[in-house]
Give the backbone structure.
Amino acid sequence: MKNKSMQQLLAEAQKGGYAVGAFNIHTMEVAQAIIAAAEAERAPVILQINQGTIQYAGIEYITAIAKTAQSLASVPVIVHLDHGTSYEMMAACIRHGFDSIMIDASKLPLAENIALVRKVVELAHPAGVAVEAELGKVGGVEDDIVVSEEEAGLTDPDEAVQFVQETGVDSLAVAIGTAHGVYKGVPRLDFERLEEIRKRVPIPLVLHGASGVPDEAVREAVARGICKVNISTELKQPFAATLRKTAVENLDEIDPRKLLGPTKEAMSEVVRAKIRLCGCAGKA
């Protein structure tokens, strides 16, 4: 099928009042599980690759897995860089055929964040690549990126308007109370802040750190304007749990396929549930 761009996919989500699920891949099994779920739900899907996975697998290997999954899928699939932190990483991902890239300069002062994002947009747009950026700091750990509770700060609506106008970015990740990794308690999202940003910023908004956020809070965030929902930790958990269970119950098994195979079904179940939660089932 003819694939869509990230801009098309998120514009349709914004118009339709739903969000597209964005799932981080680390191995072939994870990619296959996500695609199987998306096809079962007839939903568009975003395969995300972060810097840690690129360093682990090598950009050629992991991109080949993602692009193969995309080419074989019967639903729209976007290959996206999640939380890239350098201009050099952006350029490498564009060269290797990514459809969309995220430049995360949220740790920098506002003016420096704007300057770097604008530079990335100027590189990416002529190549037909979409750009996501982050304003405010989502707390927690995303591979090699650590943001402490003290550093985490919510997105300022006034700054969001300025940021979008001055960068030309395609989508904006907002900090409204979520965090990366495993939550210590129940996250409390600032929906009023989200609604204010949505009223004033025309481009699609992204929710990072959605793993572990209660379903009703995700639904509310989507209802108030989130168009892309990022999930990573909640796929790692069933992968690890199923792999441990299979290994313990089959101590003599040495075939990697038989040890890793059962993880796919466990992850697919989670992806299908998240797709339905985002409201993008049947939107392929």
User: Anything to note?
Assistant: Residues 256-278 form the longest helix (23 residues). The chain has a mean pLDDT of 93. Residues 63 and 96 are 7 Å apart (CA to CA). The first strand starts at residue 20 and ends at 24.
